[in-house]
């Protein structure tokens, strides 16, 4: 039992307050879905939120841990087998660059919710899965990591070349 | 005597207004035109940083820029945003270590008042917007940028308007490059929409082809992230 391989799910809300996501991952439904998918650990970065998830551990349950902020979030992402993130573009692209499977949960309480645009577009292109707090359990149960397409990082060179041409610099 | 002054003003005012109107349309027309300049020209740059994903995208552009052409670089971020300038400083420091460039000459870091904080009431926003605009004008007059790079934080609008105003008044010329954030897939941000509609941006980039179809004057040259 102690030999069980560690497969960690890392949940991050960045610098935001997103209690609805922390509550969702703390729910028995989501924990059960994660266990069924073979994950053993759940690490929650809860940001500015006030909801504190329960830390239960034992056999046949997820090992849960949480913290508010940390300078080493990149390390947490690197060691994770699955990342569940808020819809901020910083977290999204950091996770995609590391090639980690990603579920983005859109915060529906935000006023100007343009962030869902990016998550939905990238989900349509099969780079990640997109969910709402109330549909997270369902998304985990239905997800098939094999269907994900690796994300090809962008490149600033074409934009900079056009800027140089506009400014009249000779093209190198 | 008083009458003469009024008469003089009556003649001078329409002339002044027509001159400014002609100048305004000339600037609007000339802003979209590209120029030709020798390879070794140096351009004073104003780089506007914003919180969240904005700074990461902007730094991808800055790292790709030819540092000998685009120098000195003035980085501006909101007063409440300490993270963004810190990232730019770290990058400029790394340039000194690799090239031996002097940062004191080539990189400057400044902060600007924000028009409106999240959750601020609309009545006090009028006063803070006025303060932010005046501060933006002061910064633009001090820096006299030749190139402005921005990608959508709220602070970029007053800075771009100020730079455009200086162009109309003939007090300086600069090219404004606006690169809409990758987070905008279907709609432009408010700053982006204003700068596009008012034709203040000389060159306007979007990072998704479907957005370019909607705004045909925009350029699509791939993604930054």
UniProtKB/TrEMBL annotation, chain A:
One of its GO terms (cellular component) is UDP-N-acetylglucosamine transferase complex. GO terms for biological process: dolichol-linked oligosaccharide biosynthetic process. Gene3D superfamilies: Glycogen Phosphorylase B (3.40.50.2000). Keywords: Transferase. GO terms for molecular function: hexosyltransferase activity. InterPro entries: Glyco_trans_28_C, UDP-GlcNAc_transferase. It comes from the Eukaryota. Residues 8-156 form the Glycosyl transferase family 28 C-terminal domain. This is UDP-N-acetylglucosamine transferase subunit alg13. It comes from Zea mays. The lineage of its organism: Eukaryota, Viridiplantae, Streptophyta, Embryophyta, Tracheophyta. The gene is LOC100217271.
From TrEMBL, chain B:
It comes from Zea mays (Maize). One of its GO terms (biological process) is dolichol-linked oligosaccharide biosynthetic process. Keywords: Endoplasmic reticulum, Membrane, Transmembrane, Transmembrane helix. It holds the Pfam family Alg14. This is UDP-N-acetylglucosamine transferase subunit ALG14. Belongs to the ALG14 family. It is a single-pass membrane protein. InterPro entries: Oligosacch_biosynth_Alg14 (IPR013969). The chain crosses the membrane at residues 6-29, 122-141, 161-179. It is found in: Endoplasmic reticulum membrane. GO terms for cellular component: endoplasmic reticulum membrane. The lineage of its organism: Eukaryota, Viridiplantae, Streptophyta, Embryophyta, Tracheophyta. PANTHER family: GLYCOSYL TRANSFERASE-RELATED, UDP-N-ACETYLGLUCOSAMINE TRANSFERASE SUBUNIT ALG14 HOMOLOG. It comes from the Eukaryota. Coiled coil: none annotated.
């Amino acid at each position: 039992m102690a030999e069980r391989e560690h497969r960690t799910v890392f949940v991050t809300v960045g610098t935001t307050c997103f209690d609805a996501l922390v509550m969702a991952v703390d729910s028995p439904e989501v924990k059960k879905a994660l266990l069924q998918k073979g994950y053993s650990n759940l690490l929650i970065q809860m940001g500015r939120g006030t909801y504190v998830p329960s830390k239960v551990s034992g056999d046949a349950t997820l090992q849960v841990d949480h913290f508010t902020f940390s300078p080493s979030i990149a390390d947490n992402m690197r060691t994770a087998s699955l990342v569940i993130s808020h819809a901020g573009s910083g977290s999204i692209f950091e996770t995609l660059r590391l090639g980690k499977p990603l579920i983005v949960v859109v915060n529906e309480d935000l006023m100007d919710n343009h962030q869902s645009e990016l998550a939905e577009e990238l989900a349509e292109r099969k780079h990640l899965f997109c969910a709402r707090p109330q549909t997270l359990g369902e998304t985990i149960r239905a997800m098939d990591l094999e269907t994900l397409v690796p994300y090809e990082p962008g490149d600033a060179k074409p934009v900079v070349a056009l800027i140089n041409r506009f400014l009249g610099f000779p093209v190198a | 005597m008083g009458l003469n002054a009024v008469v003089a003003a009556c003649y001078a005012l329409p002339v002044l207004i027509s001159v400014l109107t002609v100048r305004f349309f000339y600037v609007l027309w000339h802003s979209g035109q590209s120029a030709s300049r020798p390879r070794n020209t140096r351009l004073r740059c104003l780089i506007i940083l914003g919180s969240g994903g904005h700074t990461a995208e902007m730094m991808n552009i800055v790292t790709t820029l030819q540092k000998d052409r685009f120098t000195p670089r003035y980085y501006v971020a909101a007063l409440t945003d300490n993270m963004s300038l810190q990232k730019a400083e770290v990058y400029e420091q790394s340039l000194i270590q690799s090239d031996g460039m002097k940062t004191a000459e080539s990189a400057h870091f400044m902060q600007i008042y924000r028009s409106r904080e999240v959750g601020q009431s609309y009545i006090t926003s009028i006063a803070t917007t006025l303060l932010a605009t005046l501060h933006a004008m002061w910064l633009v007059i001090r820096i006299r940028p030749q190139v402005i790079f921005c990608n959508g934080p709220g602070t970029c609008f007053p800075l771009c308007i100020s730079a455009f105003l200086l162009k109309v008044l003939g007090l300086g010329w600069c090219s404004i490059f606006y690169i809409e954030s990758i987070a905008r897939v279907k709609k432009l941000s408010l700053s982006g929409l204003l700068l596009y509609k008012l034709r203040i941006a000389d060159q306007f980039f979007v990072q998704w082809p479907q957005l370019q179809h909607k705004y045909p004057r925009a350029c699509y040259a791939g993604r930054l992230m």
